[in-house]
Design goal:
heterodimer, A: about 550 residues, mainly alpha, Amino acid/polyamine transporter I, 22 helices, globular, B: about 0% strand, disordered C terminus
Chain lengths: ~550, ~50
Protein backbone atom coordinates (compact mmCIF):
# COMPACT_ATOMS: atom_id res chain seq x y z
CA UNK A 1 0.00 0.00 0.00
CA UNK A 2 1.25 3.45 -0.80
CA UNK A 3 2.02 5.78 2.08
CA UNK A 4 -0.93 7.97 3.02
CA UNK A 5 -0.93 11.48 1.63
CA UNK A 6 0.19 14.14 4.04
CA UNK A 7 -0.95 17.73 3.99
CA UNK A 8 -0.96 21.01 5.85
CA UNK A 9 -4.01 21.51 8.02
CA UNK A 10 -4.19 25.29 7.73
CA UNK A 11 -2.93 28.14 5.61
CA UNK A 12 -1.22 29.89 8.50
CA UNK A 13 0.45 26.59 9.27
CA UNK A 14 2.25 26.43 5.94
CA UNK A 15 3.13 30.15 6.00
CA UNK A 16 4.57 29.86 9.51
CA UNK A 17 6.41 26.67 8.56
CA UNK A 18 8.09 28.32 5.57
CA UNK A 19 8.84 31.44 7.63
CA UNK A 20 10.16 29.23 10.42
CA UNK A 21 12.39 27.46 7.97
CA UNK A 22 13.82 30.79 6.84
CA UNK A 23 14.18 32.45 10.24
CA UNK A 24 17.36 31.11 11.75
CA UNK A 25 20.52 32.16 13.51
CA UNK A 26 21.54 34.28 10.53
CA UNK A 27 18.63 36.65 11.12
CA UNK A 28 19.80 37.62 14.59
CA UNK A 29 23.56 37.17 14.27
CA UNK A 30 24.80 37.28 10.66
CA UNK A 31 22.63 40.06 9.20
CA UNK A 32 23.36 42.73 11.85
CA UNK A 33 27.08 41.91 11.77
CA UNK A 34 27.24 42.35 7.99
CA UNK A 35 25.15 45.54 7.97
CA UNK A 36 27.41 47.13 10.58
CA UNK A 37 30.57 45.90 8.84
CA UNK A 38 29.70 47.32 5.43
CA UNK A 39 28.06 50.54 6.62
CA UNK A 40 24.30 50.51 7.10
CA UNK A 41 23.31 52.63 4.09
CA UNK A 42 25.00 51.02 1.13
CA UNK A 43 24.44 47.54 2.55
CA UNK A 44 20.71 48.08 2.95
CA UNK A 45 20.39 49.40 -0.62
CA UNK A 46 22.13 46.29 -1.98
CA UNK A 47 20.16 44.13 0.44
CA UNK A 48 16.74 45.35 -0.69
CA UNK A 49 17.70 45.21 -4.39
CA UNK A 50 18.79 41.60 -3.82
CA UNK A 51 15.50 40.91 -2.06
CA UNK A 52 13.58 42.10 -5.12
CA UNK A 53 15.83 40.41 -7.69
CA UNK A 54 16.73 37.15 -5.97
CA UNK A 55 14.74 36.57 -2.79
CA UNK A 56 11.13 37.16 -3.73
CA UNK A 57 11.35 35.76 -7.31
CA UNK A 58 13.03 32.50 -6.25
CA UNK A 59 10.54 32.18 -3.43
CA UNK A 60 7.58 32.41 -5.84
CA UNK A 61 9.38 30.03 -8.18
CA UNK A 62 9.86 27.40 -5.49
CA UNK A 63 6.29 27.68 -4.20
CA UNK A 64 4.93 27.29 -7.73
CA UNK A 65 7.17 24.37 -8.69
CA UNK A 66 6.43 22.63 -5.40
CA UNK A 67 2.66 22.87 -5.73
CA UNK A 68 2.93 21.74 -9.36
CA UNK A 69 4.91 18.65 -8.34
CA UNK A 70 2.55 17.92 -5.48
CA UNK A 71 -0.36 17.76 -7.94
CA UNK A 72 1.42 14.90 -9.66
CA UNK A 73 2.06 13.20 -6.35
CA UNK A 74 5.72 14.14 -5.91
CA UNK A 75 7.19 15.88 -2.88
CA UNK A 76 10.94 15.61 -3.39
CA UNK A 77 12.97 17.89 -5.65
CA UNK A 78 14.06 14.90 -7.74
CA UNK A 79 10.47 13.75 -8.20
CA UNK A 80 9.28 17.26 -8.99
CA UNK A 81 12.06 17.81 -11.56
CA UNK A 82 11.22 14.36 -12.99
CA UNK A 83 7.65 15.38 -13.69
CA UNK A 84 8.51 18.98 -14.64
CA UNK A 85 11.00 17.94 -17.26
CA UNK A 86 8.56 15.48 -18.83
CA UNK A 87 10.25 12.44 -17.31
CA UNK A 88 13.48 12.97 -19.18
CA UNK A 89 16.06 10.52 -17.91
CA UNK A 90 18.43 13.19 -16.60
CA UNK A 91 15.77 15.43 -15.08
CA UNK A 92 15.54 13.63 -11.78
CA UNK A 93 19.32 13.72 -11.29
CA UNK A 94 19.27 17.53 -11.32
CA UNK A 95 17.14 17.35 -8.22
CA UNK A 96 19.57 15.25 -6.21
CA UNK A 97 21.01 18.41 -4.64
CA UNK A 98 17.57 19.01 -3.19
CA UNK A 99 18.16 15.94 -1.05
CA UNK A 100 21.88 16.32 -0.33
CA UNK A 101 21.80 20.00 0.67
CA UNK A 102 19.15 19.93 3.43
CA UNK A 103 20.31 16.57 4.79
CA UNK A 104 23.98 17.57 5.04
CA UNK A 105 23.16 21.02 6.39
CA UNK A 106 21.01 19.35 9.05
CA UNK A 107 24.04 17.30 10.15
CA UNK A 108 25.93 20.35 11.36
CA UNK A 109 23.05 22.73 11.93
CA UNK A 110 21.65 20.45 14.61
CA UNK A 111 25.02 20.66 16.38
CA UNK A 112 24.76 24.46 16.49
CA UNK A 113 21.14 24.09 17.61
CA UNK A 114 22.46 22.05 20.55
CA UNK A 115 24.79 24.95 21.46
CA UNK A 116 21.77 27.28 21.63
CA UNK A 117 19.88 24.97 23.97
CA UNK A 118 23.00 24.34 26.02
CA UNK A 119 23.74 28.04 26.35
CA UNK A 120 20.10 28.71 27.37
CA UNK A 121 20.27 26.10 30.15
CA UNK A 122 23.73 27.18 31.32
CA UNK A 123 22.65 30.82 31.35
CA UNK A 124 19.56 29.99 33.41
CA UNK A 125 21.59 28.06 35.98
CA UNK A 126 23.90 31.05 36.35
CA UNK A 127 26.98 29.23 35.10
CA UNK A 128 27.55 31.87 32.46
CA UNK A 129 27.09 34.90 34.64
CA UNK A 130 29.71 33.96 37.24
CA UNK A 131 32.23 36.75 37.75
CA UNK A 132 35.34 36.43 35.65
CA UNK A 133 33.81 33.95 33.18
CA UNK A 134 35.95 33.71 30.07
CA UNK A 135 33.33 33.30 27.38
CA UNK A 136 35.85 32.48 24.67
CA UNK A 137 37.19 29.63 26.80
CA UNK A 138 33.64 28.47 27.62
CA UNK A 139 32.78 28.41 23.91
CA UNK A 140 35.94 26.46 23.07
CA UNK A 141 35.28 23.93 25.80
CA UNK A 142 31.53 23.62 25.17
CA UNK A 143 31.69 23.22 21.41
CA UNK A 144 34.95 21.27 21.33
CA UNK A 145 36.64 23.94 19.24
CA UNK A 146 39.84 23.45 21.27
CA UNK A 147 40.61 19.90 20.16
CA UNK A 148 39.11 16.94 18.32
CA UNK A 149 37.12 14.48 20.40
CA UNK A 150 36.81 16.63 23.52
CA UNK A 151 33.15 17.51 22.92
CA UNK A 152 32.01 13.93 23.37
CA UNK A 153 31.06 14.55 26.99
CA UNK A 154 27.66 14.64 28.64
CA UNK A 155 27.77 17.01 31.62
CA UNK A 156 25.56 20.08 31.94
CA UNK A 157 28.43 22.25 30.68
CA UNK A 158 29.10 19.94 27.74
CA UNK A 159 27.37 19.85 24.41
CA UNK A 160 26.75 16.06 24.38
CA UNK A 161 23.51 15.85 26.32
CA UNK A 162 22.06 18.72 24.30
CA UNK A 163 22.91 17.05 20.99
CA UNK A 164 21.00 13.97 22.14
CA UNK A 165 18.01 16.04 23.32
CA UNK A 166 17.88 18.13 20.15
CA UNK A 167 18.14 15.05 17.96
CA UNK A 168 15.34 13.31 19.84
CA UNK A 169 13.07 16.38 19.66
CA UNK A 170 13.67 16.86 15.94
CA UNK A 171 12.98 13.26 15.04
CA UNK A 172 9.97 13.05 17.35
CA UNK A 173 8.28 15.93 15.55
CA UNK A 174 9.36 14.89 12.06
CA UNK A 175 7.96 11.41 12.76
CA UNK A 176 4.61 12.97 13.66
CA UNK A 177 4.39 14.32 10.13
CA UNK A 178 3.57 17.55 8.36
CA UNK A 179 0.48 18.77 10.19
CA UNK A 180 0.96 17.23 13.63
CA UNK A 181 4.71 17.67 13.74
CA UNK A 182 6.20 20.53 11.75
CA UNK A 183 3.04 22.61 11.68
CA UNK A 184 2.42 22.33 15.42
CA UNK A 185 6.00 23.33 16.25
CA UNK A 186 5.90 26.32 13.91
CA UNK A 187 2.46 27.50 15.01
CA UNK A 188 3.71 27.66 18.61
CA UNK A 189 7.37 28.38 17.97
CA UNK A 190 7.13 31.31 15.55
CA UNK A 191 4.78 33.56 17.58
CA UNK A 192 6.81 32.68 20.69
CA UNK A 193 10.03 33.59 18.88
CA UNK A 194 8.65 36.97 17.80
CA UNK A 195 7.31 37.59 21.31
CA UNK A 196 10.68 36.83 22.91
CA UNK A 197 12.48 39.01 20.36
CA UNK A 198 10.14 41.91 21.14
CA UNK A 199 10.79 41.51 24.90
CA UNK A 200 14.56 41.55 24.33
CA UNK A 201 14.21 44.49 21.94
CA UNK A 202 12.34 46.50 24.61
CA UNK A 203 15.05 45.61 27.14
CA UNK A 204 17.81 46.76 24.77
CA UNK A 205 16.04 49.99 23.81
CA UNK A 206 15.53 50.92 27.49
CA UNK A 207 19.12 50.36 28.56
CA UNK A 208 19.99 54.05 28.20
CA UNK A 209 23.68 54.45 29.02
CA UNK A 210 24.58 51.17 30.73
CA UNK A 211 27.98 52.37 31.97
CA UNK A 212 27.95 56.01 33.13
CA UNK A 213 31.76 55.98 32.84
CA UNK A 214 31.33 55.48 29.08
CA UNK A 215 28.68 58.02 28.05
CA UNK A 216 29.50 57.56 24.35
CA UNK A 217 28.20 53.98 24.52
CA UNK A 218 24.44 54.35 24.74
CA UNK A 219 21.30 53.30 22.88
CA UNK A 220 21.59 55.99 20.22
CA UNK A 221 25.28 55.43 19.47
CA UNK A 222 24.58 51.67 19.40
CA UNK A 223 21.84 52.20 16.83
CA UNK A 224 24.08 54.65 14.98
CA UNK A 225 26.87 52.07 14.78
CA UNK A 226 24.41 49.72 13.08
CA UNK A 227 22.43 52.14 10.93
CA UNK A 228 24.54 55.24 10.13
CA UNK A 229 24.80 55.10 6.34
CA UNK A 230 28.43 56.07 5.79
CA UNK A 231 29.48 56.83 2.21
CA UNK A 232 26.69 55.11 0.26
CA UNK A 233 28.02 55.72 -3.26
CA UNK A 234 31.51 54.47 -2.46
CA UNK A 235 30.01 51.50 -0.64
CA UNK A 236 27.87 50.53 -3.62
CA UNK A 237 30.99 50.36 -5.81
CA UNK A 238 32.39 47.63 -3.57
CA UNK A 239 31.65 44.20 -5.12
CA UNK A 240 32.21 42.48 -1.79
CA UNK A 241 29.33 44.46 -0.31
CA UNK A 242 27.02 43.22 -3.07
CA UNK A 243 28.24 39.72 -2.51
CA UNK A 244 27.58 39.96 1.22
CA UNK A 245 24.13 41.54 0.80
CA UNK A 246 22.90 39.16 -1.89
CA UNK A 247 24.37 36.18 -0.05
CA UNK A 248 22.55 37.20 3.11
CA UNK A 249 19.22 37.44 1.26
CA UNK A 250 19.87 34.13 -0.42
CA UNK A 251 20.77 32.19 2.73
CA UNK A 252 18.32 33.97 4.99
CA UNK A 253 15.27 33.10 2.90
CA UNK A 254 16.27 29.43 2.63
CA UNK A 255 15.86 29.61 -1.13
CA UNK A 256 17.46 26.72 -2.98
CA UNK A 257 17.44 24.46 0.08
CA UNK A 258 14.81 22.16 -1.37
CA UNK A 259 12.65 23.03 1.63
CA UNK A 260 10.09 25.45 0.17
CA UNK A 261 9.57 23.25 -2.88
CA UNK A 262 8.85 20.26 -0.63
CA UNK A 263 6.63 22.21 1.76
CA UNK A 264 4.62 23.70 -1.14
CA UNK A 265 4.11 20.23 -2.62
CA UNK A 266 1.78 19.44 0.29
CA UNK A 267 -0.61 22.23 -0.74
CA UNK A 268 -3.84 21.51 -2.56
CA UNK A 269 -3.88 22.04 -6.29
CA UNK A 270 -5.53 25.47 -6.20
CA UNK A 271 -4.17 26.85 -2.96
CA UNK A 272 -2.65 30.29 -3.27
CA UNK A 273 1.12 30.40 -3.58
CA UNK A 274 1.72 34.06 -4.46
CA UNK A 275 0.41 35.78 -1.33
CA UNK A 276 1.49 32.89 0.90
CA UNK A 277 5.03 33.03 -0.49
CA UNK A 278 5.25 36.79 -0.06
CA UNK A 279 3.88 36.55 3.48
CA UNK A 280 6.45 33.96 4.50
CA UNK A 281 9.20 36.10 2.95
CA UNK A 282 7.99 39.24 4.71
CA UNK A 283 7.86 37.40 8.05
CA UNK A 284 11.51 36.46 7.61
CA UNK A 285 12.44 40.02 6.65
CA UNK A 286 10.58 41.42 9.65
CA UNK A 287 12.48 39.10 12.00
CA UNK A 288 15.78 39.90 10.32
CA UNK A 289 15.66 43.68 9.80
CA UNK A 290 13.17 44.93 12.37
CA UNK A 291 14.13 42.58 15.21
CA UNK A 292 17.63 41.27 14.47
CA UNK A 293 18.76 44.67 13.19
CA UNK A 294 17.75 46.45 16.37
CA UNK A 295 18.90 43.97 18.99
CA UNK A 296 22.25 42.30 18.51
CA UNK A 297 24.75 44.88 17.34
CA UNK A 298 23.30 47.89 19.25
CA UNK A 299 23.33 45.83 22.48
CA UNK A 300 26.90 44.65 21.89
CA UNK A 301 28.06 48.20 21.09
CA UNK A 302 26.48 49.65 24.24
CA UNK A 303 28.49 47.37 26.52
CA UNK A 304 31.66 46.59 24.60
CA UNK A 305 32.02 49.41 22.06
CA UNK A 306 33.06 48.97 18.45
CA UNK A 307 36.23 47.13 19.48
CA UNK A 308 34.15 44.32 20.96
CA UNK A 309 32.26 43.73 17.72
CA UNK A 310 34.74 44.25 14.88
CA UNK A 311 35.99 41.05 13.32
CA UNK A 312 33.48 38.80 15.08
CA UNK A 313 31.80 36.29 12.83
CA UNK A 314 28.33 34.87 13.35
CA UNK A 315 29.44 32.45 16.07
CA UNK A 316 31.74 34.99 17.71
CA UNK A 317 28.96 37.53 17.98
CA UNK A 318 26.38 35.04 19.21
CA UNK A 319 28.37 32.84 21.55
CA UNK A 320 31.23 35.05 22.77
CA UNK A 321 30.16 38.69 22.54
CA UNK A 322 26.49 38.47 23.51
CA UNK A 323 26.98 36.27 26.60
CA UNK A 324 29.44 38.89 27.84
CA UNK A 325 26.89 41.62 27.10
CA UNK A 326 24.18 39.79 29.03
CA UNK A 327 26.55 39.15 31.94
CA UNK A 328 26.97 42.92 32.36
CA UNK A 329 23.22 43.58 32.15
CA UNK A 330 20.87 43.68 35.17
CA UNK A 331 19.05 40.28 35.34
CA UNK A 332 21.39 39.31 32.55
CA UNK A 333 21.20 35.55 33.16
CA UNK A 334 17.45 35.69 32.54
CA UNK A 335 17.78 37.69 29.33
CA UNK A 336 20.69 35.52 28.17
CA UNK A 337 18.56 32.46 28.74
CA UNK A 338 15.55 33.73 26.79
CA UNK A 339 17.81 35.04 24.03
CA UNK A 340 19.31 31.58 23.54
CA UNK A 341 15.83 30.05 23.71
CA UNK A 342 14.94 32.45 20.89
CA UNK A 343 17.93 31.19 18.90
CA UNK A 344 16.94 27.61 19.72
CA UNK A 345 13.39 28.20 18.45
CA UNK A 346 14.77 29.83 15.31
CA UNK A 347 17.05 26.85 14.85
CA UNK A 348 14.54 24.05 15.46
CA UNK A 349 11.96 25.43 13.04
CA UNK A 350 14.76 25.47 10.46
CA UNK A 351 16.23 22.05 11.29
CA UNK A 352 12.82 20.38 11.07
CA UNK A 353 12.41 21.86 7.62
CA UNK A 354 15.74 20.36 6.57
CA UNK A 355 14.55 16.86 7.44
CA UNK A 356 11.28 16.89 5.50
CA UNK A 357 12.84 16.92 1.98
CA UNK A 358 14.92 13.91 3.01
CA UNK A 359 11.89 12.07 4.42
CA UNK A 360 9.85 12.85 1.31
CA UNK A 361 12.62 11.67 -0.98
CA UNK A 362 13.23 8.39 0.87
CA UNK A 363 9.50 7.64 0.98
CA UNK A 364 9.16 8.30 -2.73
CA UNK A 365 12.38 6.73 -3.88
CA UNK A 366 12.26 3.52 -1.89
CA UNK A 367 8.47 3.35 -1.51
CA UNK A 368 8.78 2.95 2.24
CA UNK A 369 6.57 4.29 5.04
CA UNK A 370 7.38 7.19 7.33
CA UNK A 371 8.62 4.99 10.15
CA UNK A 372 11.29 3.41 7.96
CA UNK A 373 12.23 6.63 6.20
CA UNK A 374 12.62 8.43 9.56
CA UNK A 375 14.82 5.59 10.84
CA UNK A 376 16.98 5.58 7.70
CA UNK A 377 17.36 9.34 7.67
CA UNK A 378 18.17 9.23 11.39
CA UNK A 379 21.08 6.87 10.74
CA UNK A 380 22.38 8.89 7.77
CA UNK A 381 22.25 12.24 9.57
CA UNK A 382 23.66 10.78 12.80
CA UNK A 383 26.79 9.69 10.92
CA UNK A 384 27.36 13.24 9.69
CA UNK A 385 26.62 14.81 13.05
CA UNK A 386 29.07 12.41 14.73
CA UNK A 387 31.70 13.51 12.22
CA UNK A 388 31.11 17.19 13.04
CA UNK A 389 30.87 16.45 16.75
CA UNK A 390 34.11 14.43 16.93
CA UNK A 391 36.20 16.54 14.53
CA UNK A 392 35.33 19.70 16.39
CA UNK A 393 38.76 21.36 16.52
CA UNK A 394 38.41 24.84 15.02
CA UNK A 395 34.99 23.59 13.87
CA UNK A 396 36.78 22.38 10.76
CA UNK A 397 34.35 19.64 9.70
CA UNK A 398 31.38 21.95 10.29
CA UNK A 399 33.00 24.76 8.33
CA UNK A 400 33.94 22.48 5.44
CA UNK A 401 30.39 21.13 5.14
CA UNK A 402 28.94 24.63 5.44
CA UNK A 403 31.10 25.97 2.63
CA UNK A 404 30.90 23.20 0.04
CA UNK A 405 27.33 22.07 0.67
CA UNK A 406 25.63 24.89 2.58
CA UNK A 407 26.95 27.52 0.19
CA UNK A 408 28.31 26.21 -3.13
CA UNK A 409 25.72 23.47 -3.72
CA UNK A 410 22.97 25.81 -2.58
CA UNK A 411 23.85 28.34 -5.28
CA UNK A 412 23.82 25.57 -7.90
CA UNK A 413 20.43 24.30 -6.75
CA UNK A 414 18.85 27.76 -6.76
CA UNK A 415 20.20 28.40 -10.26
CA UNK A 416 18.65 25.12 -11.46
CA UNK A 417 15.32 26.13 -9.94
CA UNK A 418 15.16 29.51 -11.61
CA UNK A 419 16.32 28.23 -14.99
CA UNK A 420 13.85 25.33 -14.91
CA UNK A 421 11.00 27.71 -14.02
CA UNK A 422 11.90 30.44 -16.51
CA UNK A 423 13.21 28.28 -19.33
CA UNK A 424 12.41 24.59 -18.76
CA UNK A 425 8.79 25.08 -17.81
CA UNK A 426 8.64 28.34 -19.74
CA UNK A 427 7.84 31.69 -18.20
CA UNK A 428 4.33 31.84 -19.75
CA UNK A 429 3.33 28.44 -18.42
CA UNK A 430 5.05 29.09 -15.09
CA UNK A 431 3.27 32.43 -14.80
CA UNK A 432 -0.08 30.81 -15.48
CA UNK A 433 0.50 28.03 -12.96
CA UNK A 434 1.71 30.49 -10.30
CA UNK A 435 -1.53 32.47 -10.64
CA UNK A 436 -3.88 29.52 -10.36
CA UNK A 437 -5.79 30.14 -7.14
CA UNK A 438 -3.64 33.19 -6.40
CA UNK A 439 -5.02 35.87 -4.11
CA UNK A 440 -2.81 38.56 -5.58
CA UNK A 441 -1.14 39.14 -8.93
CA UNK A 442 2.60 39.22 -9.33
CA UNK A 443 3.54 42.51 -11.07
CA UNK A 444 4.36 41.82 -14.73
CA UNK A 445 7.84 43.25 -14.33
CA UNK A 446 8.73 40.03 -12.52
CA UNK A 447 8.27 38.06 -15.76
CA UNK A 448 11.38 39.77 -17.08
CA UNK A 449 13.12 39.61 -13.72
CA UNK A 450 12.54 35.86 -13.26
CA UNK A 451 13.44 34.95 -16.83
CA UNK A 452 16.49 37.18 -17.31
CA UNK A 453 17.58 39.23 -14.34
CA UNK A 454 17.45 36.64 -11.56
CA UNK A 455 19.49 33.94 -13.37
CA UNK A 456 22.00 36.52 -14.59
CA UNK A 457 22.32 38.12 -11.15
CA UNK A 458 22.54 34.72 -9.46
CA UNK A 459 25.23 33.49 -11.86
CA UNK A 460 27.19 36.73 -11.46
CA UNK A 461 27.03 36.55 -7.68
CA UNK A 462 27.95 32.86 -7.75
CA UNK A 463 30.87 33.54 -10.08
CA UNK A 464 32.11 36.34 -7.83
CA UNK A 465 31.66 34.16 -4.79
CA UNK A 466 33.74 31.35 -6.30
CA UNK A 467 36.41 33.79 -7.47
CA UNK A 468 36.68 35.28 -4.00
CA UNK A 469 36.14 32.29 -1.73
CA UNK A 470 37.73 29.52 -3.78
CA UNK A 471 40.36 31.20 -5.94
CA UNK A 472 40.97 34.11 -3.57
CA UNK A 473 40.71 36.89 -6.16
CA UNK A 474 41.48 40.32 -4.74
CA UNK A 475 38.71 41.94 -6.84
CA UNK A 476 41.25 44.01 -8.76
CA UNK A 477 41.12 43.96 -12.55
CA UNK A 478 44.19 46.14 -13.08
CA UNK A 479 46.34 44.22 -10.63
CA UNK A 480 44.66 40.86 -10.08
CA UNK A 481 45.96 38.41 -7.50
CA UNK A 482 44.72 34.91 -6.83
CA UNK A 483 45.49 33.23 -3.53
CA UNK A 484 43.41 30.07 -3.14
CA UNK A 485 41.56 30.13 0.16
CA UNK A 486 41.91 27.63 2.98
CA UNK A 487 38.91 25.71 1.63
CA UNK A 488 41.02 24.80 -1.39
CA UNK A 489 44.42 24.62 0.31
CA UNK A 490 43.01 22.28 2.96
CA UNK A 491 42.16 19.84 0.19
CA UNK A 492 44.89 20.13 -2.41
CA UNK A 493 47.50 22.45 -0.93
CA UNK A 494 51.02 21.50 0.13
CA UNK A 495 49.79 20.94 3.69
CA UNK A 496 46.32 19.42 3.33
CA UNK A 497 44.02 19.16 6.33
CA UNK A 498 43.02 15.63 7.28
CA UNK A 499 39.61 16.60 8.67
CA UNK A 500 38.72 18.65 5.60
CA UNK A 501 39.60 15.75 3.36
CA UNK A 502 37.61 13.26 5.46
CA UNK A 503 34.64 15.63 5.38
CA UNK A 504 34.82 15.99 1.60
CA UNK A 505 35.00 12.21 1.19
CA UNK A 506 31.95 11.93 3.42
CA UNK A 507 30.06 14.49 1.31
CA UNK A 508 31.01 12.61 -1.86
CA UNK A 509 29.82 9.30 -0.38
CA UNK A 510 26.49 10.88 0.59
CA UNK A 511 26.16 12.40 -2.89
CA UNK A 512 26.90 9.09 -4.63
CA UNK A 513 24.48 7.28 -2.32
CA UNK A 514 21.85 9.89 -3.20
CA UNK A 515 22.48 9.42 -6.92
CA UNK A 516 22.00 5.70 -6.46
CA UNK A 517 18.71 6.36 -4.68
CA UNK A 518 17.61 8.65 -7.51
CA UNK A 519 18.36 5.86 -9.95
CA UNK A 520 16.23 3.43 -7.95
CA UNK A 521 13.55 6.07 -7.61
CA UNK A 522 13.50 6.63 -11.36
CA UNK A 523 12.84 2.95 -11.98
CA UNK A 524 10.01 2.97 -9.44
CA UNK A 525 8.50 6.12 -10.89
CA UNK A 526 8.69 4.80 -14.45
CA UNK A 527 7.08 1.52 -13.36
CA UNK A 528 4.34 3.43 -11.56
CA UNK A 529 3.82 5.62 -14.60
CA UNK A 530 3.61 2.57 -16.89
CA UNK A 531 1.11 0.94 -14.52
CA UNK A 532 -1.14 3.99 -14.37
CA UNK A 533 -0.96 4.37 -18.16
CA UNK A 534 -1.94 0.71 -18.60
CA UNK A 535 -4.79 1.08 -16.09
CA UNK A 536 -6.07 4.18 -17.88
CA UNK A 537 -5.90 2.36 -21.19
CA UNK A 538 -7.79 -0.66 -19.80
CA UNK A 539 -10.44 1.61 -18.32
CA UNK A 540 -10.86 3.38 -21.67
CA UNK A 541 -11.19 0.01 -23.49
CA UNK A 542 -13.81 -1.14 -20.98
CA UNK A 543 -15.81 2.04 -21.51
CA UNK A 544 -15.72 1.57 -25.26
CA UNK A 545 -16.99 -2.03 -24.94
CA UNK A 546 -19.85 -0.84 -22.67
CA UNK B 1 23.03 58.49 15.46
CA UNK B 2 23.08 60.80 12.45
CA UNK B 3 20.05 62.02 10.49
CA UNK B 4 21.06 59.62 7.73
CA UNK B 5 21.10 56.80 10.28
CA UNK B 6 17.57 57.64 11.43
CA UNK B 7 16.34 57.79 7.82
CA UNK B 8 18.06 54.51 6.98
CA UNK B 9 16.68 52.75 10.04
CA UNK B 10 13.14 54.09 9.71
CA UNK B 11 12.94 53.30 5.98
CA UNK B 12 14.39 49.79 6.39
CA UNK B 13 12.46 48.78 9.49
CA UNK B 14 9.34 50.57 8.21
CA UNK B 15 9.45 48.82 4.85
CA UNK B 16 9.75 45.29 6.21
CA UNK B 17 7.21 45.93 8.98
CA UNK B 18 4.78 47.49 6.50
CA UNK B 19 5.17 44.60 4.09
CA UNK B 20 4.68 42.06 6.87
CA UNK B 21 1.55 43.78 8.23
CA UNK B 22 0.15 44.20 4.69
CA UNK B 23 0.65 40.51 3.88
CA UNK B 24 -0.78 39.27 7.16
CA UNK B 25 -3.79 41.56 6.74
CA UNK B 26 -4.37 40.27 3.20
CA UNK B 27 -4.14 36.68 4.42
CA UNK B 28 -6.55 37.32 7.29
CA UNK B 29 -9.03 39.16 5.09
CA UNK B 30 -8.65 36.73 2.22
CA UNK B 31 -11.51 34.53 1.03
CA UNK B 32 -10.01 31.34 2.41
CA UNK B 33 -8.84 32.37 5.85
CA UNK B 34 -11.03 29.92 7.76
CA UNK B 35 -10.75 27.12 5.26
CA UNK B 36 -8.89 24.00 6.12
CA UNK B 37 -6.25 23.44 3.49
CA UNK B 38 -6.59 19.71 3.36
CA UNK B 39 -7.36 16.72 5.46
CA UNK B 40 -5.05 15.85 8.32
CA UNK B 41 -3.03 12.78 7.60
CA UNK B 42 -3.81 9.55 9.46
CA UNK B 43 -2.10 9.19 12.80
CA UNK B 44 1.16 7.36 12.79
CA UNK B 45 -0.14 4.35 14.67
CA UNK B 46 -2.74 3.72 11.96
CA UNK B 47 -0.13 4.20 9.34
CA UNK B 48 2.04 1.64 11.08
CA UNK B 49 -0.89 -0.80 11.23
CA UNK B 50 -1.56 -0.37 7.52
CA UNK B 51 1.88 -1.60 6.78
Amino acid sequence: MAAPTEAWSSRFGVILAVAGSAVGLGNFLRFPGLAAQYGGGAFMVAYFISLLIIGIPICWTEWTLGRFGGRAGYHSTSGIFHVLLNQKRWGKYLGVIGFVVPVVIYMYYVYVEAWCLGYAVNALTGKMSAEGTNFGAFFGSFTGANADGVALKFGISDVGIFVIIVYAVNFFFIYRGISKGIEVVCKIGMPLLIGIAVIILIRVMTLGTPDPMKPDQNVLTGLGYMWNPGDVLTGLKNPQLWLAASGQIFFSLSVGFGVIITYASYLRSRDDVVLSGLTATSANEFCEVALGGLITVPAAFMFLGAAGIVGQGTFGLGFNVLPEVFARMPAGHLFASIFFILLFLAAITSSLSMLQPGIAFLEEALEIDRKRSVALLGVITALGTLLVWYFSKDLKALDTMDFWVGTVMLFVQATFLVIIFGWGMGIDRGWQIAHEGAEMRIPDIFRVIIKWVTPAFLLTVFGMFILQNVFGWNFSISDPEFNPTTYVRDLIGPEPNFVSRVTIVFILVISLFSLLLVNIAGKNWNRRHAQSTAEASTAADTQVEI
Amino acid sequence: MTTGGWINMILSVGFVTGLFVYCITRVLRGPHRNRELARIEPIDEEQAKDH
